[in-house]
Design brief:
Length: 227
């Protein structure tokens, strides 16, 4: 997503520059690149101040979403969050797989799986902190398992680091906690791989949170029966 944003900005700057350079040769009025620049900066300012960047999110998501590989990676990333949150008994309140879905659901940013918030106004147990860290890193773990690489997860890492920093954890511990959480999430997804694959299909069909819960529970029950 970040690379797509940079590409769009580069294309916009390149287009305006070429209009300025080639304008005289193509008999294009000098006012055209000036208007284009003014419009580009004006829209960017309005989007930042009024929409808090949602317009850019929608545009970037629309461009990137044209790729089936991109859409599949998003679903698999979010399915990792969903499955691990369920397994660790962290309540899931919803999910959105695009910026447009997030906007309709009044979620910030480009969407994702939303959970019951971690309450930092009162003492939080070490076990609960570990659970949330594992859930935040589960998207990265899922992407790595499927693609042997990760393109998303920057916001997940940032969230983990910000929360641990608020809890006054040292930098060395934060990095250690991040690596351990990825390892834990990877193990959970591998142990429930059939449920994960079924969940990917269910989320692709936009089944409700309750239906996804029931699907995971079904696969967990079958696993217990088989063992």
């Amino acid at each position: 997503m970040q690379q797509t944003s940079l590409n769009l900005i580069a294309i916009g700057v390149f287009t305006i520059t070429m209009l300025s350079l080639l304008g005289p040769l193509l008999n294009i009025s000098p006012a055209v690149p000036a208007i284009a620049t003014f419009t580009f900066l004006g829209l960017a300012t309005i989007d930042t101040l009024s929409w808090r960047g949602r317009g850019v999110n929608l545009l970037v998501d629309w461009v990137a979403g044209a790729s089936p590989q991109y859409r599949d990676r998003i679903i698999r990333h979010e399915a990792g969050h969903f499955l691990v949150a369920y397994l660790l008994e962290i309540s899931i309140t919803g999910y959105a797989l695009s910026a447009w879905e997030a906007l309709k659901q009044k979620q910030p940013g480009q969407g994702g799986v939303t959970f019951a918030p971690l309450n930092l106004t009162s003492p939080v147990s070490a076990v609960m902190i570990d659970r949330y860290c594992t859930v935040w890193m589960a998207g990265i773990a899922a992407e790595t398992l499927v693609y042997n690489s990760t393109e998303g997860g920057a916001e997940d890492r940032q969230q983990l680091r910000e929360v641990l920093a608020l809890l006054k954890r040292p930098s060395s511990e934060i990095l250690q906690k991040e690596r351990f959480a990825i390892l834990q999430a990877t193990t959970l997804i591998q142990e429930h791989w059939a449920a994960y694959e079924a969940l990917v299909t269910a989320m692709e069909r936009r089944l409700s949170v309750t239906e996804c819960y029931e699907l995971i529970q079904q696969y967990r029950s079958e696993k217990v029966s088989a063992s």
